[in-house]
TrEMBL record:
<keyword id="KW-0812">Transmembrane</keyword>
<protein>
    <submittedName>
        <fullName>Uncharacterized protein</fullName>
    </submittedName>
</protein>
<feature type="transmembrane region" description="Helical">
    <location>
        <begin position="21"/>
        <end position="42"/>
    </location>
</feature>
<keyword id="KW-1133">Transmembrane helix</keyword>
<feature type="transmembrane region" description="Helical">
    <location>
        <begin position="105"/>
        <end position="126"/>
    </location>
</feature>
<keyword id="KW-0472">Membrane</keyword>
<dbReference type="InterPro" id="IPR046124">
    <property type="entry name" value="DUF6121"/>
</dbReference>
<feature type="transmembrane region" description="Helical">
    <location>
        <begin position="54"/>
        <end position="75"/>
    </location>
</feature>
<feature type="transmembrane region" description="Helical">
    <location>
        <begin position="132"/>
        <end position="163"/>
    </location>
</feature>
<dbReference type="Pfam" id="PF19616">
    <property type="entry name" value="DUF6121"/>
</dbReference>
Length: 180
């Protein structure tokens, strides 16, 4: 019988596994967004920010806002997952931990809205005109770039939750022969 290590969570995983996985999923999301922007730009022969007076920071600010939104969402899911897992272990019940896969649509919508609004606010700051928020938001809301941001956020959150929940009976770290 082995002595439980408090630094490890259930199933032999380190307690930081959901958080580390969330960071990797966020980096994946950012890479996919950059890739999607490249393909949309190539296929439609448009710029990510079509307004010439927008400056070089409007697009990165909007993208960074969406990436931070996805990161915070995934960290929240990981925190809830760990809490539920510890409660299930303490209560000695099977596997009651459920991951909210249906909420992936919600994070897709939220990241889409954050992308559009952050870009609109950044554009209005650059142009120093308040009314441009509405014009920029209306122009970018139906662009392929904003849609790609939302769809990829939903897809990455589904994959994150599937990887998080697929722990199975085997620990996530290799075991020494005396630990088996």
């Amino acid at each position: 019988m082995s002595i439980p290590n408090p630094a490890e969570g259930a199933q032999g995983r380190p307690a930081s596994f959901p958080y580390t996985l969330a960071i990797f999923a966020t980096v994946l999301y950012f890479a996919l967004v950059v890739c999607a922007f490249g393909f949309v730009s190539l296929l439609t022969d448009t710029d990510v920010v079509p307004q010439a007076d927008a400056g070089p920071l409007v697009g990165p600010v909007a993208t960074a806002s969406a990436v931070v939104t996805v990161l915070l969402y995934l960290l929240g899911i990981g925190r809830r997952y760990l809490r539920d897992l510890h409660e299930a272990i303490a209560a000695s019940i099977g596997d009651p931990v459920r991951l909210p896969l249906g909420r992936s649509v919600l994070i897709g919508i939220v990241s889409y809205v954050v992308y559009v609004l952050a870009g609109a606010i950044a554009y209005s700051i650059v142009t120093a005109e308040v009314f441009t928020i509405v014009l920029f938001a209306a122009g970018s809301a139906l662009s392929g770039y904003a849609i790609a941001v939302g769809v990829l956020a939903a897809a990455v959150s589904v994959v994150y939750m599937l990887v998080l929940g697929s722990g199975g009976e085997h620990p996530a770290r290799p075991l020494w022969p005396w630990e088996r």
